[in-house]
Every structure is written in C-alpha cells, then in structure tokens.
Amino acid sequence: MQFFGGSEISPSPPVPTATGNNVHMMYIFNRNGVCLFYREWNRPLRTLNPQQDHKLMFGLLFSLKSFTAKMDPTSVDKGNLGVPQLPGQGCSFHSFRTNTYKLSFTETPSGIKIILVTHPRTGDLRDPLKYIYNLYVEYVVKNPPTVQELQSGVSYSIQVLTNM
User: Fold this and answer.
1) How far apart are CA 28 and CA 34, in angstroms?
2) Plot region of 20 (φ>0 → left; ψ -120 to 50 → alpha; else → beta)
3) Which residues fall within 8 angstroms of residue 40, CB to CB, at 6 or more apart?
4) Which of 24, 106, 116, 145 fits as disulfide partner to 129, beta carbons 3.0 to 4.6 Å?
C-alpha cells in the first residue's frame, strides 16, 4: 500500500482467530489517574516501566477528551484545552483505530475509566466495556476486599472475561 509520499506502510495485522488473541491490554483507572488494574494478553513489545506506561495512557485519554470537547461543532462553550472535564461533560470519544490496534474507552459517572486495546478490526466494544464495568462493580465496589481477596476477585473476573 502506498502513502502520499510514496513510502510503503505496513499492512494491518492478520485478523484474529477465535482462540482469544483479540485483546492486547486492559486498563482500569480511577478519576485521579491511578491505575487500579492492568493486564496484558497479547503484547509482543513489553514496556520497561509499567508506571510510565500507565501515565502515558491516562495522559492520552485526558488529552483526547479535552481535544474532542474543543472540536465539538455542536457546542458553543468549547472550554480550554488541558482543563479537566467532569465525567459526561462535553462530547466524548469511544474509540480510535490505527493500522495495528484499536483503543476502546468508556468512562463512568464515578470517573472510572476502562480501556481495551484490541485488534484494529474489532467492532464496537461499548457493550463489552459496560459488562466489564458491571463485573468491577459486582466484585470490587460491592465487596470491599482485602488485598488477597482483591487478587482472587480480579483473577476470577479475568477468567470470566477470557471465556467471553
């Protein structure tokens, strides 16, 4: 495939099979940017510093939310770039796609942010993201766990998600 400058760009990765290699990463952040949960399933290049990776992902979400609100053609009140928005304030984005991955995102009224990084040909993930949030509410919010219980609850939730 040729791009404007005539340089060759890499094609999309192969379409995922039914063996479950569709999801690469999942993040869950609280409203303050603290990563509550992170999991990799299919990420060939590992990050050297997970905390830096989490900060970059949260910063990307913050910037995209601010940018989409600023570019909203239906709103007179555009706000300022870089000013934090409350959950549900302004317009929002649900996903973006590159030639190698798709990032899907949801934010709850309480400020919980759930991100899935998947194969680029993955469809709309708004319903699965809601399902993941419901699991989070059921196994974490409704049952304030000890650290040991949290690890087993997250492991169970991951098993449920993996078997979807």
Assistant:
1) 9
2) left
3) 24, 25, 46
4) 106
